[in-house]
Amino acid sequence: MKYTLSFITIFTYILITLPAYSFPRNDLKPGGIAIITVAPSNLLKPSVTYQKKSVAVIKGNQNWLAVVGIPLNAKIGQQSMTITLASKKRTTKTFSIKDYPYRTQRLTIKNKNKVNPNKTSSKRIEREFFFKKKLRNTFTSNTPHFNFILPTVGRDSGRFGMRRIFNKQKRNPHSGMDIAAPLGRSVKATEAGRVLFTGNLFFTGNVVYIDHGNGLLSLYAHLSKIIVKKGQKVNRGQIIGKVGKTGRVTGTHLHWSVYLNGNAVDPRLFLPIKNRDKKKQ
Ligand SMILES: [Zn+2]
Fold first, then answer.
1. What is the CA(35)–ligand 1 centre distance, in A?
2. How many CB atoms lie within 10 A of CB 18?
3. What is the pTM of this model?
4. How far apart are the CA of 99 and the centre of ligand 1, in A?
5. Maximal CA-CA distance, the chain
């Protein structure tokens, strides 16, 4: 009896102290995340597609949950996704997204070729556009974890989703989060995963892509140094590179992006609230 009791006590203690599987924040906006119940967890894992792309499906306590990345250019209003159960039964589920007032950021870039590229650079940009699209749409079967950490320490210098104007010309909205930090400061993997790509691209400069599984990826740009190699497994917090100013930049900083089902989503939605809302946008 005595032993049984202490066993129960220890078991309960372990249960309480084990970190619970954490999900990102559900935020139904362009560039946000929709967490949708798709099937009871006693069924086999269903597959889910949104805008014809596979979506991360995670086993919760009672249900399978789809973790859907909503694109920044998504239309406000109803969105739909397709659920295919292991029995091949197919259903559709909808969710609704609201508009969000992303701010406008005006930047001056000294290197004019990074804003109005010459012919050679334009060819390179086009090639890299398709290559980056392919990388973003990587979908592996590994179960991702969402206990993200900030990849470096520094000043918040550019929020996700900002509408951007470079040298008075409109460009794509900001696909990540900028952290201004000194040259050479360590950049860490935000979660465990496998290095999908390392190299130098026109806009991102020296860049590392990490595949966390099920279409969850993270990207670290403008690095002065890359420390990891393609195919290498990394742990959360492992140093993967150093802060730099390569690519299209106004100064030394880390650009950090997070992708879900091929869409760049707000990285702050993966961080604990204390990191997420330190500064109001
Ligand atoms: Zn950036």
1. 26
2. 8
3. 0.88
4. 22
5. 81
